[in-house]
Structure formats: structure tokens, C-alpha cells
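Annotated sample (chain length 109).
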Amino acid sequence: HRSRSAKSKDLRFTMIAHRFLSATTRPLSRRALLSASFSTTTSNHDVFSKISFIGTGKMAQALIAPLIKTKLQAPSSINAFDVSDEALKQVKELYPGVQVSNSIQDSVQ
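Output written by the structure step:
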């Protein structure tokens, strides 16, 4: 049995995800997106305290770019790991401030 609070957080997360994905095709205001966020965020600016991407391919970049562009997440609170040093170098060049890690463990801690 899930508590009402847990269901409420899941619903709010779903709303954030839906609005974020919509933002990639049509712009939404930062205020509208943050109004759905839950109160456990640790920053006034970031939706999440940290987001880690395992792999830096097209899918990761399709998520990183709008997070930074819409200012939902500061680049410094986005972390990426990839087995390819060249791919990590490309992420550093494309998205200044994004942190890169040398292992999955480092990326998610």
C-alpha cells in the first residue's frame, strides 16, 4: 500500500516530466514548470539536486540541452559518465559546466 503522500509526489513528478518533454517542442515558462515540482528540491533554481546521465549519446544530449536552455537545472548539477573519453570531451565542449565522471559510481554519488 502506498501512502497518499507518495502518490502525490509521483503525480507531481509525472507532471514535471510531461511539461519538461513538452518544453522541447514548445516553450513553457520556468514558473509553470516549477509550480509542479515537489518540495524536496535542495535549490531555488534546480528541479533536482543532481541529475546523472549514464552514457552521453543522443538521448542524454536531448535531455541535457533543454534542461540547461530552459534553466531548469544548472549545468554544475548535471553529471555525465561515458566509457568513451571522446564522448565526455564532446559533452564538456557542448555544455560548459556539466560535470563528467570516470565511473558510474562517481557519477551517481
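Annotation: The first helix runs from residue 4 to 23.
Annotation: Confidence is low (pLDDT under 50) at residues 32-43.
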